[in-house]
Amino acid sequence: MEWDTLRFEKEGQVGFLILDRPASLNAVNDQLILDFEEACTAIQADTEARIIILKGEGRAFCSGMDLRAASNRPATPEAINAAWAPWQRALNILAHLDQLTIASVQGPCLGAGMELILACDFRIAAGDAFFALPQVLYGSPPDAEPCYRLPQLIGLAKAKELVILGERFDAMQADRLGLLTRLVEPEQLEAETQKLAERCLRIGGKASAAAKHLLTRTWDLDADALTAEIEKTRAAAVATGEFSEAMQIYREQRKPQV
Q1: pTM for the full model?
Q2: Position 244 pLDDT exceeds 70
């Protein structure tokens, strides 16, 4: 599948969602917002792809909001909300996909690019990647929900530092903060991303999706509600047969194939 600003490709059970505006370092304009919502909706309905790798074409992951496009919009709440509502919806779909998601990052990952990687389950970055959340510097707080999950990843104090001060930081700093799943050499980014995807494929799909959703909702549910959700997902795992297969491996004293 292909849109004006991005494309979706599949290799077996692995899907690649590729931002495709390399001349602008994959900056997010109005058309990319609309295309991204359509793409995420299509991926949500895809029953074949189990892993989604999100990456950027060219030398950047995503340089953030297209400031030229933004400067031409009326500076009213109505105009801004109309432009960004599809982006919010798309990020929400991305964050709640049953598929496991991997952001594969090289070069700039700024603003909206950070919103994208924070909506993913795993983040693998090349050593030449650099990051920032500069929205406050342009007079607006970050307006996407994933940014406000940042304290869950790196703690409140560091999240305030990154969001409020808006300073750039490099891949090594991102790794030290706990933002990254893996930090790799630039020439190894593609191979290491594929290796992580292959590891994910060897894990039970239903069980990993259930664990992903439960972990995401840990901050939203009280203890009783979380226990009820765990019981529900455990029953679903039994019903799908994945649990029985795992117990068979245990009885035969074999190791899981991961």
Answers
A1: 0.87
A2: no
| Pairing status of strand 108-110 against strand 100-105 | unpaired
Q: Give the Cα separation of 91 and 20 in Å (integer).
A: 18
Class of domain 6-201: alpha beta
pLDDT tens for residues 166-176? 999 999 999 99
The sign of the torsion formed by the CA atoms of 109, 114, 190, 52 equals negative
pLDDT at residue 16, rounded to an integer: 98
E-strand spans in 57-148? Answer: 100-105, 108-110, 122-126, 130-132
Digit-coded pLDDT (tens) for 91-115: 999 999 999 999 999 999 999 999 9
Give the separation between CA 145 and CA 143, rounded to whole angstroms: 7
Nearest to 41 by CA among 91, 75, 85, 104: 91
Answer whether 65's CB lies under 8 Å from 139's CB. Answer: no
Sole residue written with tokens 């203890």? 223
